[in-house]
Specification:
The complex is a heterodimer of chains A (about 625) and B (about 200).
Chain A: E1 12-16, H1 17-26, E2 30-35, H2 42-55, E3 58-61, H3 65-78, E4 81-87, H4 88-104, E5 110-116, H5 130-136, E6 140-141, H6 146-163, E7 167-172, H7 173-176, E8 178-183, H8 200-203, H9 207-230, E9 235-239, E10 245-250, H10 251-264, E11 268-273, E12 275-277, H11 281-289, E13 293-297, H12 303-314, E14 320-322, H13 337-347, H14 376-388, E15 393-395, H15 420-431, E16 436-441, H16 442-459, E17 464-469, H17 498-504, E18 509-513, H18 518-529, E19 535-540, E20 559-561, H19 571-574, E21 581-584, E22 587-590, H20 600-604, E23 610-612
Parallel strand pairs in A: 2-3, 2-4, 4-5, 5-7, 6-7, 10-11, 10-13, 13-14, 15-16, 16-17, 17-19, 18-19
Antiparallel strand pairs in A: 1-8, 6-12, 9-11, 20-23, 21-22
Helix pairs in contact in A: 1-2, 1-6, 3-4, 4-9, 10-13, 14-18, 15-16
Chain B: E1 2-9, H1 14-27, E2 32-37, E3 46-53, E4 68-71, H2 74-79, E5 89-93, H3 100-104, H4 112-122, E6 125-129, H5 131-138, H6 144-155, H7 162-172, H8 177-191
Parallel strand pairs in B: 1-4, 4-5, 5-6
Antiparallel strand pairs in B: 1-3, 2-3
Helix pairs in contact in B: 1-6, 1-7, 5-6, 5-8, 6-8
Classes of the chains: A alpha/beta (about 625), B alpha/beta (about 200).
The structure holds thiamine diphosphate (TPP) and iron/sulfur cluster (SF4).
Thiamine diphosphate binds next to helix 4 and helix 16 of chain A.
């Protein structure tokens, strides 16, 4: 209820996991925070953006996750506490600095928050970022609730500083986006300045330094393991009378496990890990020795399971370990109580009550997300299809515009990650005869599109790059990017011109076009595709959700369909897509309230039946 | 323990509705946990929220386990069928937001009677409310979500007092507070009709 800053020590407030992380960090002497947005982590940055100035910390939306991490490293290496947050795939982008930062270690507490997305609710994959903790040697915290988000981020900073090592806090969608009561403490902000004390033998990772630092990292990790063994976040929860049956779990699955075990009437001990890397082997071995059968309940990869099995093998224990390697628990998608119940029933040979099962109705009209009324991307895709007759290959990228994959546009043929459109287009163009078009959003262009463009110029690749410049990072909640006119966190921010960047990359053919002007866009695309080098069209028009509207709610002018002029050809719904236009029982209409007044449909209608509203 | 399963369409204010329920529970000294599944749903997709009041660790509501289905949109009510059982109270707005698939794939939007019949066959009771009409009557056209929170409060299904809900509405709504409280009150009266 009260804002992140207003809650008084001792208050219990309803906070989202992401908000609880921010509140915890603000109580843990945070000085610098950075991010690049991405679901389900975005609210961390968006909350910080609102409170940073008032709280007295430095916060920025960085150009991408790698840069965000590096800015935070600069501050933490100087001795201040820094936090960087991102979605799981963001860590792939940031992994290069992270892997070696684990060698130098840190002076000020450094916490990387990664928000994983089992089931890909809003992501291109469901990778399990706990592997990064093992891969790079990072102590790892895995909160299961908003209260734990708050408690663990505070602890994570302390652990980081005590060990002099960067720490990872990993949430998942069902932790980051869950709201629950959080009892807060006192806000305590870190200093703004700290002088970097030079120590090249630690911080400049030439081979000789790196070799020496690797041993330091390993030594710190064994200290971390002792901390994990002592940690209050690694606890045993007894359900019923406990007994010789055990479960090891962490993160969101711990919640489903507790509910399932209670509802099933099990007598079982649950070892719930919150400080899960390095695995607290002493605690784990105790647990394995005192239980005959132990089930591992973890989403996605068998990270704990592999380690538990290897510990049991190393110590020659006869404890039966069950998990996903032997098919008791699934390895894909997020868990829920039913999935955990199913696995536990099989593992503990309990009867399963299937009465709770239900097949969802499948004959209902679907309601997938769609491009908004007035969305400039919609107009661009309409024009591209007109210009190419759909005879082109479309390398696309990540953002609202990815929705162009659906009919009627179908303007997406290849997508792997942010920034990939420009690089993959180069490969497509080399081996295909069809014209190739790369679509990339403005935020994505700055994030990771530029190296691909430089490569295309240098190698002489021949394709068209369309930079869909809606002046914002729309998909994740309209955060600013380097090209934005304003940055709410930084009034002095300088807007970087996309044109200048494109020209600076050596592109010889460039046009800036307003997508609402469909004939100009069609011409530009046709023209661009005749060039024999890489060409760039910047489709520039503000996202319809942030565009200025008149008193009637129109960006330009609201429209209606003149039913007498309408020839029922349905072009406005088969070649174009707008949530304000519906076609039911042969009647095409425009919803007056939903209409954004972009006027594109009037250009789409071959019979001029769509007219400006009076 | 009371599990409320909220459904609607992106932009209808379903997350705000869930936060009000959460705050009302917290004010009453209850444990509560909320979740939201929106994915890319700001762009007009289906949205699901859950509010679990009582001693639950997991935020998701298993199939056939909702005590209440609170829906802001008719078609979405039908989509929530799996969460209903013979104890479930269904409180649904009659509002229709026709998805594009009805236009483009020529699918049929179900009638209100079909929704009532289907849900009555699986749930304990079904109450239909003209939330949009009541919101308009209250002078808060965009507040169908608050009307439906009122319906929930009036049904008594959560066991939380009216004053807790009103306080929670005030805490979550900044603009047009009086109009929203009126919307809540109109919903509350309708909620009393529900067999909870
Ligand atoms: C590495 C990585 N970081 C972040 C994201 C989350 N994400 C998805 S789309 C997007 C930005 C989209 O902005 P833009 O390119 O401007 O397109 P728009 O949504 O505005 O059309 C982001 C940050 C991601 N998928 N991958
Ligand atoms: S939010 Fe903006 S960019 Fe995204 S679909 Fe809507 S209008 Fe288009």
């Amino acid at each position: 209820m009260s804002g992140i800053l207003e809650a008084e020590p001792g208050d219990t407030v309803l906070l989202m996991g992401n908000e609880a992380i921010v509140r915890g960090a603000l109580e843990a002497r945070l000085s610098v925070a950075t991010t690049y947005p991405g679901t389900p982590a975005s609210e961390i940055g968006d909350t910080l953006a609102k409170v940073a100035e008032k709280a007295g910390i430095y916060f920025e939306y960085s150009t991408n996750e790698k840069v965000a991490t590096e800015v935070a490293i600069g501050a933490a290496a100087s001795g201040l506490r820094a936090m960087v947050s991102m979605k799981h795939v963001g860590v792939n982008v940031a992994s290069d600095p992270l892997m070696t930062f684990a060698y130098t270690g840190t002076r000020g507490g450094f916490v990387l928050v990664t928000a994983d997305d089992p089931s890909c609710h809003s992501s291109q994959n469901e990778q399990d970022n706990r592997f990064y903790a093992l891969f790079g040697g990072f102590p790892l915290f895995e909160p299961a609730s908003p209260q734990e988000c708050y408690d663990m981020i505070k602890k994570a900073f302390d652990v980081s500083e005590e060990l002099g090592q960067p720490v990872i806090l990993r949430t998942t969608t069902r932790v980051a986006h869950v709201r629950g009561p959080v009892t807060v403490g006192e806000i305590s902000i870190g200093p703004k300045k700290k002088e970097f004390v030079k120590e090249p033998a630690r911080f400049v990772t030439v081979p000789a330094v790196a070799r020496a630092r690797h041993l330091v990292l390993l030594e710190q990790l064994s200290k971390a393991e002792r901390m994990a063994d002592e940690s209050e976040f690694n606890t045993i929860i007894r359900i019923g009378d406990g007994g010789r049956q055990g479960i090891v779990t962490s993160s969101a699955p711990a919640n489903y496990t507790i509910d399932a075990a209670k509802d099933m009437g099990l007598h079982v001990d649950i070892l719930k890990l919150g400080f899960s890397n390095p695995v607290p082997s002493r605690k784990m071995l105790d647990f394995l020795r005192t239980h005959d059968k132990v089930v591992i309940v973890e989403e996605l990869e068998p990270v704990l399971e592999t380690q538990v099995r290897s510990l049991a093998q190393r110590e020659g224990l006869g404890t039966k370990v069950l998990g996903k390697m032997d098919g008791y628990m699934p390895r894909a998608y997020e868990y829920d109580q039913a999935i955990v119940t199913h696995g536990l029933a099989r593992a503990f040979s309990k009867d399963l009550n299937e009465a709770g099962k239900c097949e969802p109705p499948h004959d209902l009209p679907t309601r997938p997300p769609v491009l908004c009324a007035g969305c400039p991307h919609s107009a661009t895709y309409y024009a591209v299809n007109k210009a190419t007759n759909k005879k082109a290959l479309f390398a696309t990228d990540i953002g609202c515009y990815t929705l162009g994959v659906a009919p009627p546009y179908s303007t997406a043929d290849l997508l792997v990650c942010m920034g990939s459109s420009v690089g993959t287009a180069g490969g497509l163009a080399k081996v295909n005869d069809l014209p190739v078009i790369a679509f990339i959003g403005d935020s994505t262009f700055f994030h990771s599109g530029i190296p691909g463009l430089v490569n295309a110029v240098h190698q002489g690749h021949k394709f068209l790059v369309m930079i869909l410049d809606n002046r914002t990072t729309a998909m994740t909640g309209h955060q600013p990017h380097p090209g934005s006119a304003r940055d709410p966190c930084n009034p002095g921010a300088i807007s970087v011109s996309i044109e200048e960047v494109v020209k600076g990359c050596g592109v010889k053919w460039l046009k800036v076009v307003d997508p609402y002007d469909t004939s100009a866009m069609i011409e530009a695309v046709k023209d661009a595709l005749t060039q024999d080098s890489v060409s760039v069209v910047i489709a520039r028009r503000e996202c319809a959700l942030i565009a200025k509207r008149d008193e009637k709610g129109a960006i330009l002018k609201k429209h209606y369909i003149d039913q007498e002029a309408c020839k029922k050809c349905r072009t406005c719904v088969t070649k174009f897509q707008c949530p304000a236009i519906s076609s039911i029982d042969k009647l095409q209409t425009i919803d007056e309230v939903l209409c954004a007044g972009c006027g594109v449909c009037a250009q789409v209608c071959p019979y001029k039946a769509i007219k400006e509203a009076p | 323990m009371v599990d409320v399963y909220l459904v609607g369409v992106g932009g209808q204010g379903i997350i705000t509705a869930s936060k009000i329920i959460g705050d009302a529970a917290l004010l009453a000294g209850e444990k509560v946990i909320l979740s939201e599944t929106h994915g890319m749903a700001q762009r007009g997709g289906s949205v699901v929220c859950t509010a679990r009041i009582g001693d639950r660790a997991g935020p998701l509501i298993p199939d056939k386990a909702a005590d209440v289905i609170l829906s802001l949109e008719l078609l979405e009510t039908l989509r929530a069928e799996c969460k209903a059982s013979k104890v479930t109270v269904v409180l649904s707005s009659t509002e229709r937001i026709v998805p594009l698939s009805v236009s483009t794939q020529k699918m049929r939007y179900p009638s209100q009677q079909e929704v009532v019949d289907k849900m009555s066959s699986v749930a304990r009771s079904v109450t239909m409310v003209d939330a949009a009409g009541l919101a308009g009557q209250a002078g808060a056209r965009m507040s169908s979500n608050i009307v439906m929170v009122g319906v929930l409060a009036g049904s008594g299904a959560t066991g939380l007092g009216r004053d807790r809900f009103e306080e929670a509405v005030k805490a979550n709504i900044r603009r047009n507070v009086d109009e929203n409280l009126r919307a809540f009150a109109l919903g509350f009266d309708q909620g009393k009709r529900a067999k909870a």
